[in-house]
Amino acid sequence: MNSSKYKCREYLNLYDLDIELFKRFNLYVYDVVPVRKVFILRTDKGDKILKKIDYSIDDLRFIYTAMEYLKNNGFDRVINFIKTTEGYIYTIWNGEIYCIMDLLEGRECEYSNPVDIAITSRALGNMHKASSGFEYNIKSRYNLHKIIDNFERKLHKIMFFKEMVLLYDNTSKFDEIFLENVDYYIKQMNESLRILEHSKYHELCSEEDKIVLCHHDLAHHNILIKDEEAYFIDFDYSVLDLRVHDLCNFINKVIKNFAYDMEKTNQIIANYNNFDNLDNREMEVLYGMLYFPEDFYSICVNYYDTRKNWSEDIFIRRLIKKVDYKQDREEFLNNLA
Question: Which residue range(s) make up the domain with 36?
Answer without folding.
Answer: 3-103
